[in-house]
Design brief:
D-serine deaminase-like pyridoxal phosphate-dependent protein, 8-stranded parallel β-sheet, Lyase, Ornithine Decarboxylase, Chain A, domain 1, about 400 residues, 6-stranded antiparallel barrel, elongated, D-amino_acid_metab_enzyme, lyase, D-ser_dehydrat-like_dom, D-ser_dehydrat-like_sf
Length: about 400
């Protein structure tokens, strides 16, 4: 993160590019899903992989240490240091990482690992035996053919469950409707959420029918979390992107563009009028290479452009990026607005997780408190967890 100097008071002060989080919008997004989870009668286990920030996590549950999901052991270790003791590591376990898992368990952290094969289950069981400690584990279930996991009719499902149970570590099942990110209508998202629930509940039923205990039935993705109508048989709901949202989620109709809480401040450094270009100092190193909206009806390039107060600048889009340069053009190729060199802008990202990962931290603003001045005040600087 570009650390704001002592004189930095507004978004006009720090060196660009830098990441900005609007805490008002973040809180609004958090409250929206928390209310939904309460209505559905499930525990909300936020996935902290998007923000990777203890400060952002503190906005949930009134600062209480809620159950969380992580995507790296670095996140698990940082959140354990921050007092979190109920953590699910939702990436298939690599046996080489088990010593770090065991170290966290010995600290009193209930860290669940994820796996989808008897081979992994044997590795976990062997490590647990050697360490003299149970390693809680969830079996990943494939609900939509998107990535990892066992299908509900896979013979390895029961075998994996028995291996874990004998080692005292079978906690339950987990699934993720990855293909919901291509569900472009409310009905498609509702059906994805129903399939996600039905698949996880069916897998849990197969294990229970084999005499195996299943305490946890975990589902979730940001689209399905906001579309689910009935989570009977499910114990917990996971989502991560929702804290910030992004243009992909807006393109799916899961949120509005006004809900996007993350942006990147860049500065105009040049013009190429013969091409209709405005050039900024924010390239893909600031925004990431993610072009997730390219497959949607409205391609948003590398991001939409706003002024420092978050007002969209017509149809101006970041349409190209090299490492440290961003190119802004109008969507229809007409002459762009007159933005002199030195003008600061904010870019709304395609994929919040990927854009946030380009930065070491966030400059915090509050759009509910900002006045009508030329640039919002910086209220704090929050670090991110990095590494694996």
């Amino acid at each position: 993160m570009n650390t704001a100097p002592a004189t930095a008071r507004t978004l006009a002060d720090p060196d660009t590019p830098f990441a900005v989080v609007d805490v008002h919008k973040t809180l609004r997004n958090i409250e929206r899903l928390a209310t939904r989870a309460d209505r559905l009668g499930v525990t909300l286990r936020p996935h902290v992989k998007t923000a990777k920030s203890l400060d952002v996590a503190a906005l949930m549950h009134g600062g209480a240490r809620c159950p969380v999901t992580v995507s790296t052991l670095a996140e698990a270790e940082a959140f354990a240091d921050g007092g979190y003791t109920d953590i699910t590591y939702a990436v298939g376990i690599d046996p080489h990482k088990l010593p770090r898992v065991i170290a966290l368990l010995r600290r009193g952290v209930r860290l669940r690992v994820l796996l989808d094969s008897p081979e992994q289950a044997r590795s976990v069981a062997d490590a647990a035996h050697r360490a003299g400690i149970a390693i809680p584990a969830l079996i990943e279930i494939d609900c939509d053919g998107h990535r990892g996991g066992l299908t509900t009719d896979a013979p390895a499902l029961i075998e994996t469950g028995r291996l874990l149970h004998r080692a005292g570590g079978l906690d339950g099942v987990l699934t993720h409707a990855g293909e919901s990110y291509a569900a472009h209508t409310p009905e498609e998202q509702r059906l994805a959420a129903k399939n996600e629930r039905d698949t996880a509940v069916a897998a849990a039923g197969k294990l229970r029918a084999a005499g195996l205990p299943v305490a946890v039935v975990s589902v979730g993705s940001t689209p399905t979390a906001h579309a689910a109508e009935d989570l009977t048989g499910v114990t917990e709901l996971r989502a991560g992107n929702y804290v910030f949202f992004d243009l992909v989620m807006a393109g799916l109709g899961v949120c509005r563009i006004d809900d996007l809480a993350l942006s990147v401040v860049v500065t105009v450094i040049g013009h190429r009028p013969e091409h209709g270009w405005i050039v900024t100092d924010g390239g893909w190193m600031a925004m990431s290479r993610d072009r997730g909206t390219a497959g949607q009806p409205q391609d948003q390039g590398y991001g939409l452009v706003t002024d420092l107060n978050g007002t969209l600048l017509g149809d101006l889009v970041m349409t190209a990026a090299s490492q440290e340069h961003g190119t802004l053009t109008t969507r229809d190729g007409t002459t762009p607005p007159d933005l002199p060199i030195g003008t600061r802008l904010r870019i709304l990202p395609n994929h919040a997780c990927a854009t946030a990962a380009q930065h070491h931290g966030y400059h915090i603003i509050d759009s509910a408190r900002s006045g009508a001045g030329p640039a919002p005040a910086i209220e704090a600087c929050w670090p991110r967890v990095t590494g694996w």
